[in-house]
Amino acid sequence: MIIDDQFYDVIIVGTGAGGGTLARKLAPTGKKILVLERGFFPVRESSQTQDIELFKKEQFHAPEQWYDENGEPFYPQTSYCVGGNTKIYSGVLMRMRDRDFEAVEHQDGISPEWGVKYSDFEPYYTEAEKLYQVHGKLGDDPTEPTHSEDYPFSEVAHESHIQTVCDGLSKQGLHPAYLPLGINQQGRTDAEDTGITPILDYENVTLKTSAQVVCLHTNPSGTEIKAVEAKVGEQSYLFLGHIIVLSCGAINSAALLLRSQNEKHPNGIANHSNQVGRNLMKQQLSVVVQLMADANSGLFQRTLGINDFYWGNGDYTYPMGHVQNSGGILQDVIFTEAPPVLSAISRVLPGFGIRQLATRSLGWWLQTEDLPNPDNRLRFVGDKLHIDYTANNVEAHDRLVHRWIDALKQVEASQPSMFNRAAHPRSDMPIQVVAHQCGTCRFGEDPNTSVLDLNCRAHEVDNLYVVDSSFFPSNASVSPSLTVMANALRVGDHLVERLK
Ligand SMILES: Cc1cc2nc3c(=O)[nH]c(=O)nc-3n(C[C@H](O)[C@H](O)[C@H](O)COP(=O)(O)OP(=O)(O)OC[C@H]3O[C@@H](n4cnc5c(N)ncnc54)[C@H](O)[C@@H]3O)c2cc1C
Residue 358: what pLDDT? Predict the structure, then answer.
């Protein structure tokens, strides 16, 4: 083991939405910062990943096995590289709704209140939208919370098929809105281009890639992290720092804490509450496919979002969730991620030309908040990482799917020549789709029920912070990245003060 001869003011582990954003925020302080990233720089120049590539043959699943609660191995859909999962994300950068920060009654229980409110997050959402160059339009979506400033860039226009659906939804009295998108001339903005690349020239910043943190070591009393142990290439190193920030993603940060157990932290670091690794949320995610009469390229942006069902609709008064368009090519999603029966059905449906690039479909992503459940958790059996996850809020999600298909049918009835109305295949995302993972080290004021305080500092370890999606006490139905980025900026302000 080599002990690195430097002493850093801050060590940041992971370069995704949380870590990459925090590194960008702290770099101008001049403090000595070490960034450790287990992956390399991605081969792609920018985030141009299309859905067709993403789901083809599990291309973006990590080459490591996790295990489901039945002990079945799977390859998680997660990206280990500079930029983390923002290198494969869709760049939809939505704010949580203001009510998402409050306790909300769902059909399956209460979505807990956050200790920090929308008004506390608002300035950081604005800062994050500027940093990540978010394009959007205010005024169309009645659930959109108040913005202190308009989006920094105007909305991205809909592709013509999407515009047709958008018009049809408006005629039904729904409120289709432009999705806020982080985008620049190179493509989607992400935590590599926006977080890490701009700070590589700073003399006070050191980035080490292929540096997988494997253990945290505390002082004898267990009150501080004294050293971060990482495998850099094939060599083991110990790095020393004043402040240690984890941002490995919700599952990997919690796994690292659990793995680092010692005499003072027998259940894992910062885990006297027994909450580390619990309350894993990942939203109920489904794809609904709409069949078209004519082919389209399938390679267009997500631009359309619908939140009319977000807080409930009609006679169903519980929250249901969010809908957004996808690219048009979804056979790959269906074939690789769907239950075999649906795969088989979709193969014989007209419009699903296999191995063809053009497609006769539009895809719709549906997302429903899942609720924190302590039994949805990480668990080690020997060295093997098990993910116990039983879905909840399933009926709310099913209702969202049915409402959405009804809305699509009305659009199709008004434009019969455009659509093939034979079916609306649905595919539910299985355990390996951990894209929207969060909640495994939730923040709060009570050390008995939360892992982190409201500044995302571990209650029990004075110099340890976590800034990835672990801190979420509840999971909204919108996509999580902008909240992770905004929170990293918020914690960044706290750290700037602490480091003075
Ligand atoms: C296909 C896909 C599409 C998505 N689309 C959207 C979208 O449109 N909008 C949205 O808001 N969200 C989207 N998401 C979710 C979004 O990508 C995540 O919410 C976000 O990236 C989480 O940020 P994070 O900082 O928690 O973790 P990550 O971005 O996952 O970053 C974790 C980082 O830590 C590194 N790391 C892990 N373990 C270690 C270790 N032991 N040592 C060192 N480094 C380590 C990883 O390599 C990675 O760089 C999508 C996700 C996927 C997979």
Answer: 56
